[in-house]
User: Fold this.
Amino acid sequence: MLRFQFECRPLADVSPWGRSQLTLHWFGLSEGWFWFDSEDREVLRYRDEAVRRWDLERPYPDYYIARMWEDLILLRWVLEEPVPDDLVPFVDGTFPSREIPDDDVYGDDVDVAFSVQSDFNVYLGYLAQSPTLKCWRHSVEGGDVVTLSQQLTTEEASTFDGPPRLEFSLPAAEFFAAVEDFDRRFITAMEERVVELERSGPPAGVALDLDDLRREHLQRSRWLEQRLSEPRKVDWAAVRNGVAEICSWPSAVEM
Assistant:
């Protein structure tokens, strides 16, 4: 089982943006904590020493939940197409590093390959010492499966809980259901914030257009549905050609 968890920071404690003019908006109102529950393990959980080091309120990333929500919606769309078996090593984090040619000249298919490879990364660069998080859909013994992988370097392992490589798989339908569940729970939580602000008005000294806030909330509440209505088609032949060219480059270890 997989569940995308979050906890919103109390509305009264949400930090406005800006200096000369403080403002609030939908994204900023999503301030809080997020993590993943998977069976008996929590993904994106800080180690106790990191909690003490940074005097954290919770052992989870303290950021804008909307950022993870946006990325998971995009990832859900990316996973519309399974990765062919022969290309899984190119996207799962096990592909050997290569040195880009000094002349920086290569075929267009290489750009296609690298673009597709990056599609399966969950960006966490806004977190200090963040792990590498990858997710891809593939076939395992005829089953339609999504695999999630968290990889930690030595430095990252001193901050985030888990082994150097944590990997688990689940049926694609269960992963998709987990994203939909997260989307609905998060949108519901944000609806409650919008309603509360419509009732109370913005905090003193903080600029907030409540009509715009309501319009944006309604738009975002349909983002998952709208994203999945767009067809996704990967040119896997071009990806294979690009990977073949990349494999001809010198190994980064050999340089």
User: Anything to note?
Assistant: The chain has one domain: 2-248. Residues 149 and 214 are 36 Å apart (CA to CA). DSSP finds nine helices and ten strands in the chain. The chain has a mean pLDDT of 95.
